[in-house]
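Bug #77: duplicate submission created two jobs. Keeping one. Sequence:
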Amino acid sequence: MVEVIVAGLQDKKGRDIVVADLMDIPDAVCHYFVICSGGSPQQVQALAHSVGDSCRDKASVKPIAVDGLHNAIWVAMDYADVIVHIFLPEQRAFYDIEHLWADADLHCIPNID
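Kept job's structure:
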């Protein structure tokens, strides 16, 4: 599932993708966070739609919930075991969620240029 999500983000040129593995953290809300940046609200929306399409087409999975598409400064997509966070850079820096889970194993995915 994580690979399908990352592919969906890369398809629309998502930047600075980080996968936070929360499997070994007791009481974590899910198994993985996938965090990504988009350069504009339009790109944040396109990234979210790409993830949704990839998950539906390749994994036959729909999100439980999607929040933030209207403003598109931070979109959260809940796939139960995986939560996807797509930010504008300013909001990502402000919330800094990958560092809130300091015990998580962080995997940085190279940008596709």
